[in-house]
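User: structure tokens for this one?
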Amino acid sequence: MGENKRRMLAGDWYLPDDPELQADTERRIALCAAYNAQGESVPGPAERRAILEKLLGSVGEDVRIRPPFHCDFGYNIRVGARTFVNFGAVMLDTGPITIGADVQIGPNVQLLTPLHELGAERRRAGWEKAVPVRIGDNVWLGGGVIVCPGVTIGENTVVGAGSVAVRDLPAGVLAVGNPARVVRTLEE
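Assistant:
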């Protein structure tokens, strides 16, 4: 494994313009294209499942991800059993993305792990690092939710449509807005 990939996987600053990472990107492009195929080349459920198993780090039982689905590498994404991901999901997995079991993810949700350098010179040079995103069991992310780098969303939490989670959200709450804030506790 090359230095840049090792640094990326360790959560350190790295340069993404690297031949090894480019090869990983080409692999992802081919697998996502097959998964997202339209028209006569639409894969069946078993074929889509096989593609997900090649693309993602792990895929639980009865996971459903509707195409189109986009990611950076795929191998840093783990999806728990019975999770549903609607159309247009974007998961930028330069760092780990862990999605629990029984999660519902609305259309056009973004789970983002990359951070870019704030200093202009290093940002122009392309330096970035990744901070993990964690989604607990039985979470519901409404349509268009954005989960920013380093955010953990506790189990049984609902994040309202269009919200932007910029900091951790505890278990068992309803959070809405930009930035997402807790508006009430949810009862069983």
